[in-house]
Design a protein that fits this description.
The protein has 289 residues and is an alpha/beta fold. 41% of the residues lie in helices and 18% in strands.
């Protein structure tokens, strides 16, 4: 099977199988070999690795992964792509295709079955409308992961790596940086895809921290505080926490907590870094003790 990295080959396969793009699955197939090479290189995949690919499409990147990895497990939601993948990946005996929704798939079981529970690498050209739930699901599900190298909407990639003081900074930035070290590998223009998306894209690599960079005694509480702080960006931190149904502390306790960090009463949540959110949540945790 010839490499699918070029547009002619992609068109040929789509025509052969009379495939129709499904808007609801956010399908945009990569048709640029330079970008594919860059993704594989930055993920650091070797023959010792088991790779989880999310949304293989017609198998373009899967072929590249299969050449470089020990084993590739590709999870595809669109049943119409399963016979195409049988065709395009027929020459590879180190690929397993699973028909399913990644958000409902037990990825821990996949790591157990195909990699003896050792950390896997995740590589994907993600559907933009569910990028955040997929990435957070992998982190929060405590899946053993070495790194995640994904194509996402440029705006989302920017959001994942910024710090306080940027308009892109928010709950996603803090969540990603708690679990991993983000690094933008490349910006990718719309003409590298078929069909062309309406937005620019970027490849971002998230290298999993061995241990989180901050010590939060109750990470769940910390993330509730973060969400409450950014739900109403224009409000002060104090009002954001006070108005949130997720936060059960009194107004007095909230005021004292903010004072304990030596922050002014008018400070907004978007001014706090990850360490300050961890300190805030630890203050509340100790209060309850």
């Amino acid at each position: 099977m010839a490499s699918l990295g070029n547009p002619q080959k992609t068109i040929e396969i789509i025509k052969k199988h009379e495939f129709a793009f499904q808007k609801k699955f956010g399908q945009n197939f990569l048709i640029d070999t330079h970008v594919l090479d860059k993704i594989i290189a930055s993920s650091g995949v070797t023959k010792d690795d088991c790779v989880l690919e999310i949304g293989p499409g017609i198998g373009t990147m899967t072929q590249y992964l299969a050449e470089n990895a020990g084993h590739v497990v590709a999870v595809e939601i669109d049943s119409k792509l399963i016979p195409i993948l049988k065709d395009t990946l027929g020459d590879y005996d180190n690929v397993t295709v699973i028909h399913g929704d990644i958000l409902k798939t037990d990825v821990n079981q996949i790591t157990e079955q195909y990699n003896g529970g050792r950390p896997i690498k995740v590589v994907a050209n993600l559907p933009y409308y569910i990028t955040t739930p997929i990435i957070m699901g992998l982190f929060e599900g405590k899946v053993p992961i070495d790194n995640i190298t994904v194509m996402v909407q440029k705006e989302v990639a920017d959001r994942m790596q910024v710090g306080p003081g940027s308009k892109d900074y928010g709950a996603l930035s803090l969540a990603v940086q708690y679990y991993a070290q983000p690094y933008i590998v490349a910006n990718v223009p719309p003409n590298c895809f078929m069909p062309r998306p309406n937005v620019g894209s970027a490849v971002i690599r998230l290298t999993r921290h061995k241990n989180p960079p901050v010590k939060a005694e109750d990470p769940d509480l910390m993330f509730r505080l973060i969400r409450a702080s950014f739900n109403q960006r224009r409000k002060t931190l104090q009002n954001g926490l006070n108005n949130s149904p997720e936060i059960s502390f009194t107004k007095e306790e909230i005021v004292q907590a903010i004072e304990s960090l030596d922050l002014g009463a008018s400070i907004r949540g978007e001014a706090l870094n990850l360490e300050q959110f961890a300190d805030l949540s630890n203050y509340f945790t100790n209060l309850r003790k």
